[in-house]
Write a structure and sequence with these properties.
Blueprint lengths: L5 E7 L3 E7 L3 E5 L4 H10 L3 E6 L5 H4 L2 H7 L4 E4 L9 E3 L4 E4 L4 E7 L8 E5 L4 E5 L2 E2 L2 E2 L7 H12 L6 E4 L4 H11 L4 H15 L7 E2 H7 L8 H9 L9 H13 L3
Parallel strand pairs: 3-4, 4-5, 5-6, 10-13
Antiparallel strand pairs: 1-2, 2-3, 7-8, 8-9, 9-10, 11-12, 13-14
The protein binds zinc ion.
Length: 261
């Protein structure tokens, strides 16, 4: 049964998006890097914090947790393998989180790469994906801890979710990501259309997140590293010396993005 949950976008820092899932009364904060931003949103919407969900250990995702726990002693769900002191419910691949106040169930997907313990949360009823810094609109997170092979496996898991899933990533990096995507696939018509649509949103001051997983699969080069056009471009631009395995192609794509202005 679909219930009446909503999601608030809480901008923080330069380009972070923190997320609040709520039913008009209770609220769950996802990756609350900034407690003040979360507390202001809770007050504005008259919401009671009932839980915190964390995807990985970086400060812009967990920095607000101590102050939020002083405000309300709520359970903190987070990755078992990312060593976050505040976590009360340590999660692994295949775990399921049930949040009774919201009647919300979330499946836990291990997505190592950006950090080794990184997890994503997928709501199988609503088709919402909270993926932290793993999959971005038009891009993916940097490989700070894991390997390209791990990240490719992680993104494959996310790409296998339903096409109509909404991708709630943690940063507004979309236009920068799409500029790179167009460098990789200049002939991709859907990508060209997406760039125009996302630029219009930004000009109107609107977020480009969440995005539709189907559109990511059609336009995000990091979900398309096996596409013939992408591999051909890696060769033509001398990012790979010859055809290699999938993980090597993905690694070359990620390195190319790291150095892309
Ligand atoms: Zn991060």
């Amino acid at each position: 049964m679909k219930n009446t949950l909503s999601i608030l976008n809480v901008p923080a820092f330069d380009d972070n998006y923190l997320w609040i899932i709520h039913d008009g009364k209770y609220a769950v904060a996802v990756d609350p890097g900034d407690a003040d931003a979360i507390l202001a949103a809770l007050a504005q919407h008259h919401l009671v914090l009932s839980a915190i969900l964390l995807t990985h250990h970086h400060a812009d995702h967990i920095g607000g947790v101590p102050a939020l726990l002083r405000h309300a002693a709520v359970p903190v769900y987070g990755p078992a393998n990312d060593n976050i002191a505040a976590v009360t419910h340590a999660l692994h691949q295949g775990d399921s989180v049930h949040l009774p106040e919201l009647n919300l169930t979330l499946d836990v997907i291990a997505v190592p790469g950006h950090t080794l313990g990184h997890i994503a949360y997928f709501a199988p009823v609503q088709h919402w994906l909270f993926c932290g810094d793993t999959l971005f609109a038009g891009g993916c997170g940097r490989l700070f801890e894991g390997t390209a092979s791990q990240m490719l496996d992680s993104l494959d898991k996310l790409a296998a979710l339903p096409d109509d899933s909404l991708v709630y990533c943690a940063h507004e990096y979309t236009l920068s990501n799409l500029r790179f995507a167009l460098e990789v696939e200049p002939e991709n018509a859907l990508l060209q259309q997406r760039m125009i649509a996302e630029q219009a949103k930004r000009q109107d001051g609107l977020p480009t997140v969440p995005s539709l997983l189907k559109l990511e699969k059609q336009t995000n080069p990091f979900l398309r590293s096996r596409e013939a056009a992408v591999v051909a471009r890696l060769l033509a631009c001398e990012k790979i010396p010859a055809l290699q395995d999938d993980a090597s192609h993905f690694a070359a794509l990620r390195v190319w993005k790291n150095h892309y202005a």
